[in-house]
Write a structure and sequence with these properties.
mainly alpha
Length: about 90
Amino acid sequence: MEIVFLVVAMILVGLLVAALAPKIFKGEAPYGIRADYIASVIAAVVVGFLDWYLIPMIIDSESLKYLGVALEPGLSSLLVLWLMRKAKS
């Protein structure tokens, strides 16, 4: 059940970041808004899974695992969208 919640939460984070990207980066999406949504969701889900499974292997801390899952997927989605904009220019 945790996995389903994790996937749904990361998809929502990716969608939220993609929706806010034009306001954050002050411009149009270079590859289109659909590409922003797809890249943002993929980045959020991949980083969310990595945080969920790798942080406990490195450090035995539940609170750090939840903190990583809460912060890093959104930040990684922003990074991917920024890299997409830099690659196009």
